[in-house]
């Protein structure tokens, strides 16, 4: 059931913008295994898409949070039923290129 949900969400992910798109933001994520994954989004998009991207990635845990290193904070990116979408990348103050960390809540 979880794998089916992941494939449905993966189909909904918006296309990755070109690197030279004026509104693009480059997100690098360090995942618990030590690997790094990377993807571009539009700064005007909700950070729920970042959550969905991590949720669908094969090497990422199913129960996680996305955190910044400095200042240390957890990004409010997990969408909740019956609530408005999480803020955009721009609204939470992320720059053109960011390194974020996937924290495994089960670890």
UniProtKB/TrEMBL annotation:
Q: Which InterPro entries match?
A: Ubiquitin-like_domsf (IPR029071), UBX_dom (IPR001012), UBX_domain-protein (IPR050730)
Q: Which SUPFAM superfamilies would you find in this protein's record?
A: Ubiquitin-like (SSF54236)
Q: Which residues form a coiled coil?
A: none
- Quote one Gene Ontology molecular function term: ubiquitin binding
Q: Where is this region: Disordered?
A: 1-20
- GO cellular component assignments: endoplasmic reticulum
UniProt-listed GO biological process terms? ERAD pathway
Q: From which domain of life does this come? A: Eukaryota
- Report the Pfam families cross-referenced here: UBX
Domain named UBX is located at: 20-102
What is the recorded name of this protein?
UBX domain-containing protein
The species this protein belongs to is: Candidula unifasciata
């Amino acid at each position: 059931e979880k794998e089916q949900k992941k494939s449905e969400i993966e189909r909904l992910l918006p296309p990755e913008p070109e690197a030279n798109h004026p509104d693009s933001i480059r997100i690098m994520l360090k995942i618990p295994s030590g690997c790094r994954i990377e993807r571009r989004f539009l700064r005007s998009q909700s950070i729920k898409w970042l959550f969905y991207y991590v949720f669908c990635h094969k090497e990422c845990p199913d129960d996680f949070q996305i955190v910044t290193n400095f200042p240390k904070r957890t990004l409010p990116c997990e969408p909740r039923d019956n609530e408005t979408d999480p803020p955009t990348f721009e609204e939470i103050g992320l720059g053109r290129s960011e390194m974020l960390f996937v924290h495994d809540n089960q670890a």
